[in-house]
Amino acid sequence: MVTPLRRKLLRDIGRHRPQFVAIAITIFLGVMVFAASYDSFQNLKASYDQTFVDFRFANLFVRGGNTEAFAADAAGIPGVEVVQTRYVADLPLEISGVKLLGRVVGLPESGQPLVNQLKVIAGALPRGDGVVVEEHMARHFGLVVGDHVSLYDDAAWIQADVTGIVSSPEYIWPARDRQDIITSPDNFGVVFAVQSRAAAWTGLDAPNEAVLAYAGTSDDAAITAQLTDLAASHAALDVMPRELQPSNAALSEDIAGFEETALFFPLLFLAAAGMAAYVLIGRLVYAQRPYIGGLLANGFTRRQIAGHFLGYGLVPGLAGAIPGALAGIWLARVITRLYTGLLSVPVTLVQFYPTTVVIALVFGLGVSVVAALAPALVASRIHPAHVMRGESPKGRGGMSIIERIFPPARRLSTRWRMMLRNIGRNPRRTAYTIIGVVLSLMLVLVSWGMIDTVQHLLDRQFVQIQRQDATVYFTAPVDADAVSRLADVNGVAAAEPVFESPVSLSVAGRTYATSLVVMDPATTMHRFAAPSGDWVSLPGSGLLVGTTLESDFGARVGDPVSVTVGTANVTFMDTIAGFVDEPLGTIAYSSWENAAARAGVPIPVTSALIRYEPGVDPAAVRDGLTSLSTVAAFEDAKAMLNTVQDFMGLFYGFVGVMLVFGAAMSFALMFNTMSVNIVERAREIATLLAVGTERRAISRLVTIENLLVTGMGIPLGLVAGYYVSAAAMSSFASDMFRFDLYVRPTTFVLSALAMVIVALIAQIPGLRIVQRLRIPEIVKERSA
Amino acid sequence: MSASRRGGIAADQVAPSGRMLYSHIEEGKARMSIAFTQLWKTYGVGPTAVDALRGIDLDIPQGEFTVMLGPSGSGKTTLLNIAGAIDDATSGTVKVDGIDLNTLSRDETVQFRREHVGFVFQFFNLIPTLTAAENVQLVAELTGHDDGERTHRVLTDVGLADRADHFPAELSGGEQQRVAIARALVKNPPILLCDEPTGELDFETGRMILSLLRRLNREHGQSVLLVTHNAAVGTMADRVVRLRSGSIVEDRHVEAPVEAEELTW
């Protein structure tokens, strides 16, 4: 049976349905975003973890040095379950006439390796001269079992049959290395072959990489440390734990974003909902003082009164939290499947996490109940005699802050002064409206800021810094003349020689695997950005290295650095001449003169940077270049950009949804506070109407007042949003990529404009109240 | 603007600016008559309809101090509201100096109220964020009488010149009502409508307010319509109209009105 008090609760909520619905919707959004993000994070993490378990993803990768000796010693270390060695090298590939960079990875003759196993999607693992093709490249080129690919083994092109299509835990995100995290299937692909064929094609005398899997029964970090020392003793070039493996690292950063989203965005929504609920329920308590007094006078206990008003928080909390949790869980499943499908993650795990539901409900209910707590306590402490005697709290009066600080404002017309003072008459409510604007702008700027930042990063890396249109890789090192002849190809405006090789840098007592790029100091194909933002030249002496070595390694200009070129088995000493600030990668750059002087050997040309003539057909130029016998592979600079833009579609969708949610959140809070303002001032408004003020004049005053309050929040929101965005972006910083926040000026302007528009829309219901106000009834009321 | 668009108001009563002018009103000596003819006001429809006024016929001449008496629900406030054009009649006419208020457009109604009617409410209805002077000035600015001198003068008239810079929360009930009266008077309205002006005040203060209203009526000549349930107040009026259940049950002139200071209840 519904008690009269409960009936009153439901009817009161019904009478203020729009405001309570707004609160419930905001709670719904907050809970849904939390559940969707957190469950997506858990699902994706579980999917990756299961992938790594099912396919025995290596705990450690050790490359270079005396690999087989290292492997033999490593096998004896407690906690190491499996050690396997293999051949891994980058070779030119040709697929359907397209030359690109490829990687060959050796597989045991018997089939599946013990570590880093493959998921066979089609066909079978290779036998003899056959290869299996990694899924991304296969899909891009439309390869099926029975097709052919060609590999260049330093002497000739060799055709290999495609025996299967596979997915590998090492290439879920098909990055070439940590310095080349963004690749296009048009530029880079991976094939797997039996060890003997891999050995023959790569020309390596012995396996050059060991992959290790731990037993999982001991401290992994301690085992890694032990193995790192062991690897160093065997002259290994690079020791890479699983966490740093490029594909794993990139994906881990990505799903970490889901975990952050699960915390940050829901907090904004729930804070806004809490404030809106507090304003509304506080107002209801104030308006119902006489009735509360009557209930108390008739014997209701204070606890009953407090419990009754807590119900005003409980109802919208339940109405928002329960559907929000359910919607979030469903959405998480959609997002998980979409994500794993897009990235071709071999295992998709979608599970039900009871803790998510519990946390979601606690958040949603907790916020609205806590918001109702203060008004409920106020209601329970009402003195019946005072309220029933008709004593209302006297309204506040006083000059506005602007009038106090700026005396000429006191000469404004009375209506303007009234409006300025209205802003300060309920400081808490005004503060909540301003906070609502601030929260909304934080949400908008974090979302929109991500888009601006990523676009800026792409522009900076692929347009301002890397200025080539393409890179060609030679079948064998060439001389300067060979590079010059590239310029004779139709459509090529310029060609510059480059040496590029994986290296190991030892600086400040630590070792870092990266790439060394040697180019002409007068290069027009690459610009070097100093941390100060200035463009600098490649020095004639010393290396320019990525700023990560400064920030993470503590390296300084002038520090000595040991450079080991793995492919040439050469080590030389050099000096850090400066740092470069590049969004992608942490590369070491040197001039030809410096490299030759330091290495003591001539530096070969391994590739060339190409610039097209304006207006040419890139495909035609590519064909012209790759038809040259000296050209083994081709990398289109714009193709990488296009690859990223393709993935951005999902991202833009996410940001678009967040912007809509943000608008809804700010609308809900502003709608509540503005409506309550109008209702509370009904008697004043009726009096103004009675003395002959036009309704539209009052509407104008109300609008200006609302816009002033909104305007007070906008600068605070833009500043807060900027700093929160910067903090969010900095959490994605690593040596692979760095998102330095960049927000376009127009983004600030448009965000502010969006807030103004939301405020104008949110006040419409309040203005309707002004239009429909019945003067005779209101002026006779003791309180509105 | 043609007479037809302005709902029957004669062209010579409309200034080029569009403001309504009653040319026979002397500056500083506002006077207007009000005539109710077969006035009905019904709230609701069907079985729940309530007749708040039933065919009221009443003429209030210029400058008269009329007190309307009656119990709650008698229709006195409704009649007052219709006279002040803040409510509409269901049928019948309300003519102020010959102009039927029912024929005015919405904007013209607002203009009429702004320029010709002063209201004094039971609960004062002052703007809490404005000082006493600013509450008065608000209306002064609205009607174009926004020189500070007039504001000061009306506050002096009501004896509150020294409290002009105080906010309503800092004033007593009587002081607040005096501010409300000053606000009503600052535009020198021909008609002053008072709805239970002493309802929230103690005896002494209420008597003081009534005395003030009577004095201002004599000095400025406004037609005053004062609604109250307190029969004693009728003895100070020029005329007493008593309503019951929406009809006039008594309408008489007071032979020898007493001074407000002599009232007792």
Characterization of the model:
The complex is a heterodimer of chains A (784) and B (265). In chain A, 53% of the residues lie in helices and 19% in strands. Chain A is built from 24 helices and 22 strands. In chain A, the strands form four sheets. Chain A has a six-stranded mixed barrel with strand order 3-4-9-6-8-7. Chain A has a six-stranded mixed barrel with strand order 13-14-20-17-19-18. In chain A, a hairpin with a 5-residue loop joins strand 15 and strand 16. The radius of gyration of chain A is 33 Å and the shape is elongated. Chain B is α/β, with parallel strands linked by helices. Chain B has one domain: P-loop containing nucleotide triphosphate hydrolases (Rossmann fold, 3-Layer(aba) Sandwich). Chain B contains six helices and ten strands, in the order βββαββαβαααβαβββ. In chain B, a hairpin with a 2-residue loop joins strand 4 and strand 5. Chain B is globular. At the A-B interface, helix 13, helix 20 and helix 24 of A face helix 1, helix 2 and helix 3 of B.
